[in-house]
Amino acid sequence: METFLLKDIDNPNSANINFYINNQGGYQSLQKALAMSPAEVIDMVRKANLRGRGGVGFSAGMKWYFCSLNKEVSPKYLIANADEGEPGTFKDRAILEKRPHLLIEGMVIAGYSFGAEYGYIYLRGEYPKAKEIVNKAIQEAYHKGYLGDNILGKGIKFHITVHQGAGAYICGEASTLLESLEGRRGHPRIPYYRLANVGAWGKPTIVNNIETLSNVPLIIKIGPEEYTQIGPAKSPGPKLYSISGHVNKPGLYELPMGTSLRELIYKHAGGIRENRKLKAVIPGGISTPVLPPDKIDCAMDFDSMRNAGSWLGSGAVIVMDDTTCMVKILWRALKFFEHESCGKCVPCREGTGWMRNIVERIEDGKGTDDDIDLLMDIVDNIKDKAFCPLVDGAVTDVESIVTNFRSEFEEHIKNKVCRMVNA
Amino acid sequence: MITVTINSKEIKLEKPITVLDAARQEGIRIPTLCYHELLEPYGGCRLCLVEVEKMATLQTACTLLTVDGMVVKTESDKIAKARRGMLEFLLINHALDCPYCDKAGECDLQDNVEKYGPAKGRFKETKRKIPESLEDSIIVRNMERCILCTRCVRMCNNVQGAFALSLINRGGHSHIQPFSGGTFDCEYCGNCISVCPVGSLMSRLHRHAYRPWQIESETETICPYCGVGCTVIVQARSQNITRVIPKFGTGLNNGLLCARGRFGYEFVGSKDRLKTPLIRKGGMLEPSTWEEAISLIAKKLSEIRDQHGGKAIGGIASSRCTNEDNYVFQKFMRIAIGTNTIDSIARMGYSGAQRLIENIFGQGSTANLINGLANSDTILCLGGDPTTINPVLGLQIRESRRNGGNILTIGYLKGFENFSPISLKPRIYSENTLLEGLIVELVKRKGLTGEKSAFEARIKDIKTSLEDVEKECGLSKTGLDNFIEILVNASAPSVILGPGLIQRADGSYSILLISALSYIMNARIYLLSERPNEQGLLDMGCEPDMLPGYRPVTLANFRKRYEGAWKARIPDEKGLTLFEMIEAAKEGSLKAMYVMGENPVFNLPNSKKIVSALKNLGFLVVQDIFLTETAQIANVVLPSLGWAEKDGTYTNLERRIQRVRRALSKDGMEDWRIVAEISKNMGVPMDYSSAEDILTEISNVSPLYKDITHAEIEKGDALWPYKGEPLRGGLEEISLKDIICHAPRISDGKFFISIEKPLFLSGTLSRKALALNRIYPEAVVRINPLTAQRLGLNSGDIVSITTEVGTLTLPLLYDILVDESTVMLTNNFEERGAFSLIDYKLDQITKAPGIEGWEVKIQKIMEKVGS
Fold this sequence. Notes:
The complex is a heterodimer. Chain A is of the alpha/beta class. Chain A folds into three domains: 17-227, NADH-ubiquinone oxidoreductase 51kDa subunit (Rossmann fold, 3-Layer(aba) Sandwich), CATH 3.40.50; 238-321, Ubiquitin-like (UB roll), CATH 3.10.20.600; 329-415, Up-down Bundle (de novo design (two linked rop proteins)). Chain A has helices at residues 17-24, 28-35, 38-47, 60-68, 91-98, 100-114, 128-143, 174-181, 210-227, 261-268, 302-307, 326-340, 346-363, 371-382, 390-404, 406-415; strands spanning 77-82, 118-123, 148-151, 156-164, 205-209, 238-245, 251-256, 278-282, 316-321. In chain A, the strands form two sheets. A five-stranded mixed β-sheet of chain A has the order 3-4-2-1-5. In chain A, strands 7-6-9-8 form a four-stranded mixed β-sheet, with helices on one face. In chain A, β3 (148-151) and β4 (156-164) form a beta hairpin. In chain A, α12 packs antiparallel against α15 and α13 runs antiparallel to α14 (371-382). In chain B, α9 crosses α17 (507-521), α12 packs antiparallel against α14 (466-473) and α20 (578-587) packs across α22 (607-615). Chain B is an alpha/beta fold. The mean pLDDT of chain B is 93. In chain B, a hairpin with a 4-residue loop joins β31 (798-802) and β32. In chain B, the strands form ten sheets. Chain B has a seven-stranded mixed β-sheet, sandwiched between helices. At the A-B interface, α12, α13 and α14 of A face α2 of B.
């Protein structure tokens, strides 16, 4: 398949603006978009069914439309969420480091559509190289007149600032991201308002994923009709899949939305290492429920994944073969959530650590018979009771792993040892 | 109209409020921990989860806004399990050291666990360990008990505005810590302690001294420190104060306090309190009996009165005593002694400024509600920092900033530095030039209304141009333009005037200018008051020319009314003001003085001069709770009951009359009772059996306190004129033409004293409050680092400050906000008071002393230790 998002990423000049313009037809979508009215741009993106690639899958066009209704309010903000913190995910990094102009073009078009004059790229603290590249690209774009107060001489204003986060997973959550951007501690906000109405500094704000914004130039270029033909019509477009774990060819793949997990693992990623048996797949990053091998025929798009009992998430596929101890996987996942809990609300702050403790002692062979029930009761006390969705990731991991692999936990408790430990 | 149903009870609401508020309105209890009525909702403790129809998951009542048709359930098995779950989570890392935690018994966590919590814990691992922090001398911080509700942080940042506390670290490692590390570098308001639901932040003053259920009495009274008049609760055990706390929802402070109010109560139980009357015998003050002391005073005062006339005796009333004390005192001076020579510390500025402003705008024109300040869109502060002089009033100004208002400041105002104030810092003693320039510009931009023609004529006399201001004040044009723009566009402005500009030899001119500015802007004026009953003592007639209710003593028809009520003659000629008394004592025409609850030697400038004047008196009576500098040179010293030991009323700076209550039953006499005893011994009986008796008489004679009774005060807002009438005309007319500027011209390279009003100390009482002295342990001199550099001085050096009056040796401290030609000193430490360095020049209109403007020489005595 012809790639769009990852086009020419192996070319050392891929981040260069001249390469982007001369070899890839860059910024033509911007010219096309600026020739249209903002409402027409939004309409196009809505018709293209562009769904948020951060994991929730909400229609980007609808978001922009809501924001565009705040006609009297100025300024509005567009935030490109580059706080790619979901374990297993490395898709935005490729765009940031290899195709920064694609992102910038998408941002300017998005900003134009709903009237934002200022854009921020909230960049993950651990991506110093991306910061350098994106900042250079922004300078290039200013120089060529694709950013500034009078873009392409059309009186359109759009500025981009890169803001580097300090390394908190929770700051990928939109309202927390804004708190951090405004200079405060990364705590999620009480959702009194849609961010599209009251967001950064109290102004209408749109937070979009890097990949979402990078899809925009394609939609403008080929139009919604053609775009919706890539993958299923209800969640179309090219999609980046980060595949890691026990496969022969781990890496980043751009494939049409709706490619099946099986095709991804066995065709593109070259199958399981040493021809071992597949044990489990985390399909969309560590906060999505683990799928057992019998579910891997499902298509990787927002709706099909939900039907299969998991989520598409960020498209970060983590493959585990039969040498994997699922208790240890759960322990590792919980350790992550414990570490990344912001500490604002009680169930997440105290619950993640407690669950990690319990799983830790099961893994160490010190579990007791009632530990699994205790774990599930804690999950029940956390589930749907926390402030933000962070801890839901921990909850789904516990639920899906304990449900699908309960016998493994019982075995640990019974034998007082992890049989995988030396395997 | 919104209709919601909570537990099958239908509730009608005018506007959307949170489910929690709606439930509480109806008396439906939903447990909470992180919620506090003064703070923004947080939604962190998840204890207030409720079931809402048509919503899949439980919702936090504190963050959920009601919508029409909402159906809410607050009790169900599901909710009970959720609450149990949350409390279990909170307890897994909680110290559970209730047996020795001071909070046990009034701990929200304990109460909630007792009601909703699990009976047994399932956590098997070891708890998080964080050692208790005893690094700070006032606030103990125990992070093992902390439930991270962040009430303290939100209080500190969003209400107090001190920005001293923060959440540190993340997730399970989060804890609360001052930015300054272990010790607090903050305003010590202690409001974080009030909102802490557990025993994480606690006052060290009463650590492990008692359990909450051992409190024997709780008394609601008014704070003894400043003119705001915050309501406090005095908790006592065995006739000792265990602690002083505020109460949310009560008083104009609504649960907020400052450092002095919360931690300054230790003076009451000080070992230095006077216990028996003292009589000077053979040069020494010897303990004596009440009978001996009172008959001696009666005899001596009668003799002097009979020999030299009442005019030879003066009285100083007390801004720390109640209205009742002061009323009886002035009545005694007027009818038993036969003199109008009675004045008070209010002469230091408050009374004169108020008189002048009232002359221009009418009586009561400085009576503006403190809590209305937060609604001002523009607040101009000058002459002193409201956040240190009247801290809780200062909070309202900070609140106005949060509401989107502008804070404009002129001069040294540290308290708003974190509130992006728009500041002008004119060169010292050029403030009047700046005000003139602002007035000229505002008249140009806004015009005059024609309402007060005489005043407008005076305003039109002012000719200073902005160019003059730039040059003389050393200000930039952009800064001035910006400042003026905000003044011009203010729609609800207020002006806050502190003592700094009043205590000048041309203070009256500053007041005139500030009045003019307020007039053009249509601003409300607030006069800061440093003492709890400065306003009340003036209301009571403790002025040489005014009878209670500001009825001029020289007007016969007013005097007659009081003579009728008191059944005695009142002298018809004005008495001497405070500083005239000092002069008269010095030259010998004043033979005796009766000082009630005041310490002029320390609180008036040029202590040497005051001491020699008072020593020149034939007879000095001092009635106080401590052996103050003044008491030490008295002939007779009388110990009185102090704050928290007597009943009465205080009137605050907004003219709110509030009840002061007896919290401790101590032996001794109230000030009014002592005065009445002496009066009786002098043949003028005063038959009062209680403070309430006196208030009844006050409400009968004073037109401003008409119908004020304890019952009326307790109903709520008793602001005078309560049912009476203020006096619009009849005040002594002051010729506005006579009020002129004579500020000293400042040449470079000279240094002048300016007086700091620190937040933590305010004088005689605070000196005896140990906790406050731990926060601010020693007198310092604050100097701008640039000045210090020029003089070759470093922070920490010991320097001597010399004027023509005296020398003080003090450690130097850098302060970037201090004017470069100023050395800033406090007047709060024994033997180290700035007032011992300065003389005074009286303002001819207000008769207030000019205490700034005294040139000093600075010399290094010793390098900073260790440098």
